[in-house]
Specification:
By secondary structure, the chain is an alpha/beta fold. The chain contains 13 helices and 7 strands. Strands 3-4-2-5-1-6-7 form a 7-stranded mixed sheet, sandwiched between helices. β3 and β4 form a beta hairpin. α1 runs parallel beside α2, α1 packs across α13 and α6 runs parallel beside α8. The longest helix has 22 residues. The chain is globular and about 65 Å long. The structure holds adenosine-5'-diphosphate (ADP) and magnesium ion. The site of adenosine-5'-diphosphate (ADP) has 17 residues, from α1 and α12.
Length: 282
């Protein structure tokens, strides 16, 4: 690996728009079919990325017995003191999990217990993911670090964005999504201003499109894309179709496992690499 890795947040203020499915689908495809080293970080207390990847890596029992309490994102936000009362992070090996079956996929588990933690009142803690990545030079170890965000703007989305170089906005085409994305952009721009972040939108990815050629969809899309804010965030040409198997299929919610969603995710990954490599030479 020659270039520095990049950190990408998958974010939208809405739930159920396909953030997690896109994050896993892209990360798994890049890792298993394009030989990229991927670190997933799950900061969503709903920890859906974690559940899918634990299933893939066959580590569900380990999660219940060990990781939940001792090896998750929560460790980064808890104050760790050494015997000499210095603050210290856990070593990456203490919180990053992996399996020999999928050497390119590493994970920092999410944790439902995050909802009980009172991190909100300590703004400096929201720089912990960024600092952890920097202190242990994780951008030299991974091609891409993908952060799956919760659907509400909170301490955890702040922490994810502060650590990120780019963000991707998975979005369903519907009447209300423009307003949601305008608000999201405002929140992110404010954070960029206050924190001097070097954070860029990589684009919106349309998700769960039933039929892009339907007139109704075309109309909504036209209205959506005529808004200036959308031009600023940019758009992926590739999108994901609504593929029922991804919701209910016997092989779970990993896009590469079903023909139709495999084609979608492949195209998105190719476009992703083109976009991101284009940015590096800017
Ligand atoms: N392309 C798709 N086709 C069909 N179902 C999808 C697709 N993407 C996501 N889903 C389903 O939609 C629901 C919400 O997706 P999810 O990725 O969990 O969204 P979010 O993380 O934004 O809440 C899940 O049940 C998921 O399986
Ligand atoms: Mg999710």
């Amino acid at each position: 690996m020659s270039k520095m890795g990049k950190v990408i947040s998958f974010i939208n203020m809405k739930g159920g728009v396909g953030k997690t499915t896109l994050c896993i689908g892209m990360g798994e495809y890049l890792a298993n079919y394009m030989d990229k080293k991927i670190l997933f970080i799950d900061v969503d207390p709903q920890f859906n990325t974690t559940q899918t990847l634990l299933d893939l890596l066959n580590l569900e029992d380990e999660y219940m017995n060990e990781y939940r309490d001792n090896k998750s994102i929560r460790k980064l936000f808890q104050t760790q003191e050494t015997i000499s009362h210095k603050l210290a992070f856990p070593e990456p090996s203490e919180i990053i999990i992996s399996s020999n079956d999928y050497p390119n996929i590493h994970l920092i588990c999410g944790n439902i217990d995050l909802i009980f933690d009172d991190n909100q009142n300590d703004g400096s803690k929201s720089r912990r993911i960024k600092k952890f990545i920097k202190d242990f030079a994780l951008k030299e170890k991974y091609d891409y670090i993908f952060i799956d965000c919760p659907p509400t703007i909170s301490f955890y989305t702040d922490a994810a964005l502060k650590a990120s170089d780019f963000y991707i906005v998975p979005n369903r085409i519907d009447r209300y999504s423009i307003l949601g994305i305008k608000l999201l952009k405002q929140v992110i721009d404010r954070l960029k201003f206050d924190e001097d972040l070097n954070l860029h939108p990589l684009g919106i990815v349309y998700t769960m499109v039933d039929n892009m050629n339907r007139q109704k969809v075309q109309k909504l899309r036209e209205t959506f894309e005529s808004s200036d804010i959308i031009k600023e965030i940019d758009l992926f040409d590739s999108f994901t179709h609504l593929v029922n198997d991804l919701t209910v299929g016997y092989q779970g919610n990993i896009a590469s496992r079903y023909k139709k969603s495999e084609d979608d995710i492949k195209n998105i990954c190719i476009e992703f690499l083109t976009k991101i490599e284009g940015r590096e030479t800017e």
